[in-house]
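Sequence, please.
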């Protein structure tokens, strides 16, 4: 593919961002200097709720239905026409392949029709860069904890595109573990936020759940923690055949405490190993209140500053894709092609000059 740099070298570049990696449809327009001109986000929670999880085919079909009208609405909110756009950025992976194809198809079609470049974006890099959109952004280098339903990574970021993964989950991602335990507790989808809400009224010390791989390197493991919760629930239910609300709250609080402890302890160890003094936390689980409170307290003691995107940008969204598109503008393709990579290692990305 040929690179198209000339049209993106100016400062007043308007980039349309499209996010369709999973079950959120996100659209935004970003312009350096001006910031986010307009954005829209639609969640498919109601669609997938009755199935207790994401159905990939339904997710793809809903993206098809929602995406084009959302692009029109966002452009109208920004006071723009299609002809005002300078580039289109879209999530090319990782994610559900059908969902990725929907965003990639529209992005490439728009770019081809308008004669503008298209920029394929790595979903996790977009999360990693999203804290740079806050008023007082972090400065590279920093340590990044990328924690969501599909990923749990510790990344040493020396520059944009200069990433070294120093820790990752060996089984379930943290968000996935939250969702699975939520199902054990008969909580609605999505389980993570519901579990965190239930945990607010519980005792985090009621059950002594394990902190897997506590003293073993920088990798994570949450599968054993989930199994420990299941065994406790089976034991409690065997006594009287039912779970009281009080027990459910205590189990939720104790599980959350164990999961957060694991995340915090690995972050502190990674900061010590890398010698970095800044920590970025991004991804859906980054909105968890207990995680934020505990990281703030523990990192303050060691002089480490913690950065987050806004709570609204912790979930998948078009803003982070458009913003990452600006950073990756020199990789814009003048010959649009649909790229959809369900698996895409972050370490494969090239450094940005």
């Amino acid at each position: 593919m040929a690179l198209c740099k000339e049209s993106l070298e100016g400062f007043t570049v308007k980039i349309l961002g499209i996010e369709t990696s999973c079950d959120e449809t996100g659209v935004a327009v970003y312009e350096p200097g001006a910031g986010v001109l307009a954005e829209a986000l639609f969640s498919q929670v109601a669609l997938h709720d009755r199935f207790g999880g994401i159905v990939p085919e339904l997710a793809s079909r809903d993206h098809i239905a929602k995406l084009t009208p959302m692009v029109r609405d966002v452009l109208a909110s920004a006071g723009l026409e299609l002809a005002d756009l300078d580039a289109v950025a879209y999530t090319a992976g990782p994610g559900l392949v059908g969902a990725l194809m929907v965003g990639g198809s529209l992005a490439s079609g728009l770019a081809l029709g308008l004669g503008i470049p298209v920029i394929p974006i790595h979903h996790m890099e977009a999360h990693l860069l999203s804290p740079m959109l806050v008023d007082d952004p972090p400065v590279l280098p920093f340590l990044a904890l990328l924690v969501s339903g599909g990923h749990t990574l510790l990344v040493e970021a020396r520059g944009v595109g200069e990433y070294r993964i120093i820790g990752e989950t060996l089984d379930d991602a943290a968000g996935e573990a939250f969702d699975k335990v939520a199902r054990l507790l008969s909580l609605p989808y999505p389980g993570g936020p519901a579990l965190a809400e239930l945990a607010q009224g519980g005792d985090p010390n009621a059950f002594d759940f394990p902190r897997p791989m506590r003293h073993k390197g920088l990798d994570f493991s949450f599968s054993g923690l989930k199994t420990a919760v299941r065994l406790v629930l089976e034991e409690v239910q065997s006594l009287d055949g039912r779970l009281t609300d009080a027990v459910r709250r205590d189990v939720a609080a104790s599980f959350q405490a164990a999961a957060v402890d694991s995340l915090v302890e690995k972050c502190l160890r990674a900061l010590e190993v890398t010698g970095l003094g800044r920590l970025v936390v991004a991804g859906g689980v980054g909105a968890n209140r207990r995680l934020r409170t505990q990281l703030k307290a523990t990192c303050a003691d060691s002089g480490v500053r913690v950065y987050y995107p806004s709570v609204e940008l912790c979930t998948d969204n078009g803003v982070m894709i458009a913003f990452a598109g600006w950073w990756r503008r020199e990789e814009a393709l003048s010959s649009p092609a649909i790229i959809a990579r369900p698996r895409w290692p972050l370490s494969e990305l090239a450094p940005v000059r």
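Confidence is low (pLDDT under 50) at residues 1-7.
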